[in-house]
């Protein structure tokens, strides 16, 4: 059963809810990845390269700002997003036939 952290009274409650949140995060990552695949298709049609540095900076800045707005460590989450971006660029490069 979904509970807030404050409603959890046992470690079992905590673990069940962490697992629930992790599952929801994976669903969001899967949705995010569907957009990466579509971006590669659109970029191919427009001749846009996989790596667009100004967009990379914007996405990293967004991650940093969004994390801090929620009281999280912006630098830490920006680094997580840097890894997501790196993987997405590698995927798009493969899809676009870039070296």
Q: What key attributes describe this structure?
A:
single chain; 99 residues; mainly alpha; Chorismate Mutase Domain, subunit A; 3 helices; chorismate mutase activity
Could you explain the architecture of this structure?
It comes from Shinella zoogloeoides (Crabtreella saccharophila). This is chorismate mutase. The N and C termini lie far apart (48 Å). This protein has one domain: Up-down Bundle (Chorismate Mutase Domain, subunit A). The chain has helices spanning 11-46, 53-69, 74-96. The chain is 77% helix and 0% strand. The radius of gyration is 17 Å and the shape is elongated. It is mainly alpha-helical and 99 residues long. The model has no long low-confidence stretch (mean pLDDT 97). The longest helix is centred in the N-terminal third of the chain and has 36 residues, at 11-46. The protein has 3 helices and no strands.
Number of distinct helices: 3
What is the CATH fold-level name? Chorismate Mutase Domain, subunit A
Distance between the termini: 48 Å
Briefly note the structural class of the backbone: mainly alpha
Q: CATH superfamily, called what?
A: Chorismate mutase
Q: Count all strands and give the number.
A: 0
| Unreliable runs | none
Average of per-residue pLDDT values: 97
Biggest sheet statistics = none
CATH architecture: Up-down Bundle
Number of domains as seen in the coordinates: 1
Report helical residue fraction. over 70%
At the first level of CATH, the class is: Mainly Alpha
Our Rg estimate from Cα atoms comes to 17 Å
- Shape annotation: elongated
Organism: Shinella zoogloeoides (Crabtreella saccharophila)
Protein name: chorismate mutase
GO molecular function, one term: chorismate mutase activity
Keywords: Isomerase
